Amino acid sequence: MTTVQDASNVTNLFGAGASTTAKSDAQETESRFLSLLIAQMKNQDPLNPMDNAEVTSQMAQLSTVQGIENMNKTLEALAANQGVNQMAQAANLIGRAVLVPGNTLSPAELQDVVGFDLSRPAENVTVSIEDAAGGLVRKLTLGPRDVGVNLLAWDGLTDNGSAAPAGEYRFTIDAVQAGQQVSSTSLNLGMVNSVSQNSQGVQLNLAGNKNVGYAEIRQIF
Questions:
Q1: pLDDT in the model for residue 66
Q2: Among 53, 116, 177, 183, which one has the highest count of C-beta atoms within 10 angstroms of its own C-beta?
Q3: For residue 182, with 0-12 CB atoms within 10 Å meaning exposed, 13-18 middle and 19 or more buried, which class applies?
């Protein structure tokens, strides 16, 4: 004889699971699943019982959901712990200079030391320094440079040998290898005034109201 489950019983099963507010989402899902599975087994057709493989598959799916939630909790804990560790490490940089992405410099100041990060070796690198209006102030031919971070210091002089006026300047990198352009990232020095943390992670607050991510540091001085 075939027994058909009353739809109201299914509704009650869901209602019972939802009423336990103290449970987590995964625990609530597990409770509902087990209740429905038991009800389904109780009301199955004796002449056409549930397939064992189907039951095993459903149990495996539930286990997978539980495993994903546990993994997410572990990852969240690791991320929080990493953020705390980075804050502690970043705090040690207060008062120190760091080399980070940027293309500004000022003569006769901390920022007269700049750098660039090459994606591969270059047989010739030139650095063009421009004033605020975009006028060329100095062009430096550096010759060959290796892959990675390279440093250089501007003496604050223009191409005609006179001292450049105080102010902020910008520089661009032109790197070539076998007639092909080599990609590069301009780097400048900044003094770390403080550190903070936001949705983007640990941030370094530099002099001049600039800030960069902790992971963007290329070199520490």
A1: 65
A2: 116
A3: buried
Calpha distance 181→126 (Å, rounded): 12
The pLDDT tens digits for 136-164 are: 999 999 999 999 999 998 888 999 999 99
Whole-structure pTM value = 0.62
CB 162 within 8 A of CB 176: no
Residue 83 resides in a domain: no
- What was the pLDDT predicted at 90? 87
The residue out of 21, 49, 66 marking a domain boundary is 66
- Measured torsion, CA atoms of residues 35, 39, 42, 48, in degrees rounded to the nearest 10: -120
Distance CA 94, CA 76 (A): 28
| Alpha carbon distance 99, 91 (integer Å) | 16
Q: 207 and 148 in one domain?
A: yes
State which residues form the domain around 5: 1-66
- DSSP type of residue 13: H
From residue 19, how far is each of 7, 12, 14, 15, 34 by CA, in Å? 19, 10, 9, 6, 16
pLDDT of residue 88: 84
Q: Which two tokens stand for residue 157?
A: 């002089």
Same domain, 58 and 147: no
Short-list 155, 217, 166, CA closest to 190: 217
Inside any domain, residue 199: yes
